[in-house]
Design a protein that fits this description.
By secondary structure, the chain is of the alpha+beta class. The chain has a single domain (8-173), classed as 2-Layer Sandwich (Peptide Methionine Sulfoxide Reductase, Chain A). It has helices spanning 17-24, 47-51, 72-80, 108-125, 148-151, 153-163, 165-173, and strands at residues 8-13, 30-38, 58-65, 90-91, 94-95, 102-105, 131-134, 138-140. The protein has a 6-stranded mixed beta sheet with strand order 7-6-1-3-2-8, covered by helices on one side. Helix 3 (72-80) crosses helix 4. The protein is globular, with a radius of gyration of 15 Å. The N and C termini lie far apart (44 Å).
């Protein structure tokens, strides 16, 4: 398989997968996104099971990207600027281990990039609570959750406004 036809993946968990997908669906170089569950011990978990917090999974996004248009480091930086990197037990209004921030690396190069970027940001901003873990099985979420912001825009807008996400991100990253 040559470089041009090779599938390049990035997998991130950063709280509510609806918001993370909305953010990445607008990034140049992102070819496709899918929200789902990863990092846990239950095979083929459901949304309800993951929400109960007993499967070990997190809500995540898997991104297929064109490395000729956007680098993994650029994707990673974009991801980090959309989360609360110093909170390990959830993101914004969502509390629980299923919302913890994680960078799931697909190869040694992604792991090295993630470690370097986190280290650089920590030297400027203090400790981060973002885990860096090897990718595991990714289970796509139920169809209702895919592109939720398009399917139910009013519900999505109420959620994003109520989460406090926008203000919190400004507080963290506009320093």
């Amino acid at each position: 398989m040559n470089e041009q036809s090779q599938k390049h993946l990035a997998t991130f968990a950063g709280g509510c997968f609806w918001c993370v997908q909305h953010d990445f669906d607008h990034v140049i170089g992102v070819l496709s996104t899918s929200v789902g569950y990863t990092g846990g011990h239950t095979l083929h978990p459901t949304y309800q099971q993951v929400c109960e917090g007993t499967t070990g999974h997190v809500e995540a996004i898997q991104i297929e990207f064109d490395p000729h248009r956007i680098s993994y480091q650029e994707l990673l930086t974009y991801f980090l600027r959309g989360i609360e990197p110093n909170r390990s037990a959830g993101q914004f209004c969502d509390i629980g281990t299923q919302y913890r921030p994680v960078i799931f690396y697909h190869n040694a190069e992604q792991k090295q990039i993630a470690e370097r970027v986190i280290q650089q940001l920590e030297s400027a901003m203090g400790p981060f609570a973002v885990a860096i873990e090897p990718s595991t099985a990714f289970y796509p979420a139920e169809e209702h959750h895919q592109k939720f912001y398009k399917k139910e825009p009013e519900h999505y807008e109420r959620y994003t406004q109520g989460s406090g996400r926008e203000k919190r991100l400004k507080d963290i990253w506009d320093k």
